[in-house]
């Protein structure tokens, strides 16, 4: 599909107004270096962080995790002097497609995107490729051809799901009626956490997933869906797998409202390891959280600079993660950054 320049600029103006496009910060003035007669001028000077223009399409602000991720990206851009065009898609794939087209029109050096869902991207990745703009997936990848992106930086969601199941087995003695609060439908973390969780549990007939529904990774939906699970299944629920802390915190509230003790009557395992999850573990209402690291800014811009200079980078860059439990939550909370 071809889009006229006027349409792109009109779209850009609209996006700037509706999505709060933030450009950070303007480039510092170039430093004047003394001429060195012995060094021949290089035909293509290596770019530095101050030369880089990066477009980043963020999913939204659905969770504390996302907020921490956004701060990490903006702060690192400001620290390095990268010219960042940041767009918040408010959880809408269409907004992300428009953002990529805007970045192409702006001729950015590199595009970073956390893809809200895996499928339904149409031609937009091809369009970026045709324009010679490399794409880096940050946090969530999409289901596109391998030549349509250069690298994917983020967590191993499958392993996070497996770890949640391993922890759940220990907490319940391999006997549980589990309800699952799934993340955004068709998002990579929801798909893979569900798969990893089931992969481990399949060998344990006492571990039954009695219900599973999306809470869209938000606390408000986690609360609502858990309320409806309790209406439907009552006290037969003995465990909750919340695919992120925010939904887990919503579930804790719903369980308290219902008159049961979260963490005791109903075991809860969630994912992310944000500060509030540690507070819940200290209060005894959450049993464990599997870490998913949102502080991806430094690794992202390091990759972006390499890619802009045509250097080879690995196709997959994983983040290093852990699992946390109540026994040392108070000590670890002191060092948590999100
Ligand atoms: O777990 C959740 C957020 O994509 C890994 O998105 C991320 C997930 C994270 O909304 O809290």
Descriptive notes:
The chain has 338 residues and is of the alpha/beta class. Helix content is 40%, strand content 18%. The protein has a 7-stranded mixed beta sheet with strand order 1-3-2-4-5-6-12, sandwiched between helices. α8 links the parallel β9 and β10. α2 crosses α10. The longest helix is centred in the N-terminal third of the chain and has 17 residues. Bound molecules: beta-D-fucofuranose (GYE). Beta-D-fucofuranose binds next to α2 and β10.
Give a short synopsis of this structure.
The chain has helices spanning 5-19, 64-80, 93-105, 124-130, 157-172, 188-201, 219-233, 245-257, 275-283, 297-308, 329-333; strands at residues 22-24, 53-58, 83-88, 110-113, 135-138, 151-154, 176-182, 207-214, 239-242, 267-272, 288-291, 316-318, 323-324. The protein is of the alpha/beta class and 338 residues long. It binds beta-D-fucofuranose.
